[in-house]
């Protein structure tokens, strides 16, 4: 039986407070309102596919920043995030979910029975993207079982454009 990952569209997004690379806390609910929030969960700092994804968000950052608040999240520590932000010269912050509470709340933590568990063993989450509107409702959800996939950035930007027109 295939496991359904991620929270479905229409769900109220679980609120959270996580440290960014400077150890300053960021609360989701305080960011809701002006622009949608895009949560981009990824497995690990310095990972091959994760670096591909984070570099793509960096390359398209101006477009994303115009349309949303971008919040990449992994289960790495904020110390690791600080090194990763510096190494890639990122224009955005990374949030640390090293307790895995947020990844668990968004239903993207692997179970020991998952095929990808060995790859993600040690507390890394599946890759996933959620777009949350100003009222805190998940309007877009992408959470594939295959941790080597990356999101469709053009689709994300197009979806954010439609939200901006509402």
- What is the total tally of β strands? 7
| Helix fraction by DSSP (H/I, runs of at least 4) | 25-40%
Strand proportion: 15-25%
Class derived from helix and strand content: alpha/beta
* SSE sequence, one letter per element: EEHEHHEHEHHEEH
Q: What is the CATH third-level topology name?
A: Glutaredoxin
Sheet with the most strands: spatial strand order: 5-4-3-6-7
Number of domains: 1
Architecture per CATH nomenclature, i.e. the level-2 architecture: 3-Layer(aba) Sandwich
- Taking the alpha carbons of the first and last residues, their distance comes to 38 Å
Report the major sheet.
5 strands, mixed
Radius of gyration, taken over Cα atoms and rounded to an integer in Å = 15 Å
Structure, described:
By secondary structure, the protein is an alpha/beta fold. It has one domain (17-165): Glutaredoxin (3-Layer(aba) Sandwich), CATH 3.40.30. The chain contains seven helices and seven strands; from the N terminus they run ββαβααβαβααββα. The protein has helices at 28-31, 48-59, 61-67, 78-88, 101-105, 117-120, 153-165; strands at 17-19, 25-27, 37-41, 69-74, 95-96, 128-132, 138-142. A hairpin with a 5-residue loop joins β6 and β7. The longest helix is centred in the C-terminal third of the chain and has 13 residues, at 153-165. Residues 113-122 have low confidence and may be disordered.
Strand-helix topology:
Layout (H helix, E strand, L loop, with lengths): L16 E3 L5 E3 H4 L5 E5 L6 H12 L1 H7 L1 E6 L3 H11 L6 E2 L4 H5 L11 H4 L7 E5 L5 E5 L10 H13 L1
Parallel strand pairs: 3-4, 4-5
Antiparallel strand pairs: 1-2, 3-6, 6-7
């Amino acid at each position: 039986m295939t496991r359904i990952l991620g929270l479905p569209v229409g769900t109220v997004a679980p609120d959270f407070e996580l440290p960014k690379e400077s150890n300053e806390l960021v609360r989701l609910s305080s960011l809701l309102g002006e622009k949608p929030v895009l949560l981009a969960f990824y497995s690990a700092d310095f990972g091959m596919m994760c670096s591909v994804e984070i570099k793509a968000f960096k390359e398209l950052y101006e477009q994303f920043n115009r349309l949303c608040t971008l919040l990449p999240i992994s289960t790495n520590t904020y110390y690791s995030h600080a090194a990763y932000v510096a190494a890639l010269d990122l224009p955005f912050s990374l949030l640390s979910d090293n307790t895995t509470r947020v990844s668990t709340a968004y239903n993207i933590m692997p179970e020991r029975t998952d095929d990808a568990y060995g790859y993600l063993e040690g507390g890394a989450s599946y890759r996933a993207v959620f777009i949350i509107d100003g009222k805190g409702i998940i309007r877009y959800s992408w959470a594939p079982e295959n941790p080597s996939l990356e999101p469709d950035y053009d689709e994300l930007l197009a979806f954010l454009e439609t939200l901006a027109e509402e």
